[in-house]
Amino acid sequence: MKYLCLVYSDEKLLHSLPESPRDEECLAYAQSVQSSGRMIAAEALQPVDTATTVRVRNGKTSYFDGPFAETKEQLAGFYLVEADDREQALEIAAKIPAARVGCVEVRPVRELEVD
């Protein structure tokens, strides 16, 4: 089953705390998940101030600079992994280096059946 591991952190703190992961550590972990055959995709995102939110209401499209919600933590990146079950997905997520300074939301991917 596919699971999406959404990595959240406070951008202002992500790289400034003593326990903050370095890029090399993050890349090494991503490569280890890739080597295990569990990685489908993983990407780090540009800073939240580069985001644009799109909404369509009553046929009218609106664009807003920035993320959808005001929060203390922002979406920093993601891992899309293949795991045998939820427990295995949680094990993978717990080892993501950024989890030390933020959090990782783990959600199963909804498989759509198209006729």
From TrEMBL:
SUPFAM superfamilies: Dimeric alpha+beta barrel
Record domain YCII-related: where: 1-112
Record family assignment: Belongs to the YciI family.
Record-linked Pfam families: YCII
Domain of life: Bacteria
Official protein name in the record: Uncharacterized conserved protein
InterPro entries, sorted: Dimeric_a/b-barrel, YCII
